[in-house]
């Protein structure tokens, strides 16, 4: 039980200056029954010009049994003094008027003679600079500094616990498997280190068509489902291609590829399947996340089984505002680009124009070149004739064995300033 007692008498309050305040006390271990038998002494810091120390006060109280001490700074000070303001009102019975004075609340705690010696021993044990600084923050730091100190100590304890747990787990794994087995597992993981956005790669294949297998790019069910929608692509003349371009349903890459359809019926049919599925992937890549909820956003010529397959392989599910929806992060967009490149290779004798694909996807040239190099493709430059009699430099990707090994990027050389 705690009780607040005013230390000041009315005559003392009358003598207070405008910058002084009254003192209120509460005892932490009981209720003060008779304040007349308690002798209070208020001590003020002698550093009057110091901005932090000039307002530091220590209040002592002597009773028949115990000595009590309280202060308005350090860890034992009451935080309520900084959060709210206290006032003492004195009513003059003769005039009926009340005078109000500022007040500070002190928490009085029992003081035992042995405490000072213990504190001295503790200070002698502070060996490091960090411990001394922490001690100063505990005594004189701001609330923000004290919260930072407490947070750092909790993190330090957590880190030590985590390090011990990791070390113990590592010891158990090494003891169970042995160093040789762990080294072989690490080597195997290094050899299979492929980016998650690349199609399944068989780098040890003997033929280019087996590196990125066609069945890994299009499922048999999806291949069969697009059969009816490939008919518009089975055209022969330039006029038919121009009419197809006017529909705005097909990309530049697909239209350019239609100019070189093979004469063999089976090969022609296979290439049309590749180009149609590639066109669907381009539409998917260019969709915005909010467009996934619109039915038919990929086009009315996309079968439901194909759409479900695309949502499963190239989007991720998220839970937001009580709803589950499909979104396409940057990693999934990169995965779509890689699958488009692989399909383009299958449809063009494993050599394809990356510049057309890059423009259809609205991505940078560096982005598509990075993905192509990650797939082990060889990149070359080639002059391509464009409408109007002009020629452009295009980037051509070729899949040949063995796959090209991507070298580690080197830092840029800085130009010397003259």
What does this protein look like?
It contains 15 helices and 12 strands. The chain is of the alpha+beta class and 418 residues long. A hairpin with a 2-residue loop joins strand 8 and strand 9 (323-327). It is elongated.
Low-confidence stretches: 1-18, 117-126
Count of helical regions: 15
Give the end-to-end Cα distance, rounded to a whole number of Å: 79 Å
What characteristic shape results from the CA principal axes?
elongated
Mean pLDDT over the full residue set: 78
List SSEs in N-to-C order.
Answer: EHEEEEHEEHHHHHHHHHHEEHEHHEE
- Residues in helix, %: 40-55%
Let me know the largest β-sheet: 7 strands, mixed
- The number of distinct β-strands equals 12
Topology:
Layout: E1 4-6, H1 10-14, E2 22-27, E3 39-44, E4 57-62, E5 67-71, H2 80-83, E6 86-91, E7 98-111, H3 114-125, H4 129-140, H5 143-177, H6 179-191, H7 214-217, H8 220-225, H9 238-245, H10 252-257, H11 265-286, H12 304-314, E8 316-320, E9 323-327, H13 330-347, E10 351-353, H14 354-361, H15 365-374, E11 378-386, E12 390-398
Parallel strand pairs: 2-7
Antiparallel strand pairs: 1-2, 3-4, 4-5, 5-7, 6-7, 8-9, 10-12, 11-12
Helix pairs in contact: 11-13
Q: In short, what is this structure?
A:
The protein is α+β, with helices and mostly antiparallel strands and 418 residues long. It has helices at 10-14, 80-83, 114-125, 129-140, 143-177, 179-191, 214-217, 220-225, 238-245, 252-257, 265-286, 304-314, 330-347, 354-361, 365-374; strands at residues 4-6, 22-27, 39-44, 57-62, 67-71, 86-91, 98-111, 316-320, 323-327, 351-353, 378-386, 390-398.
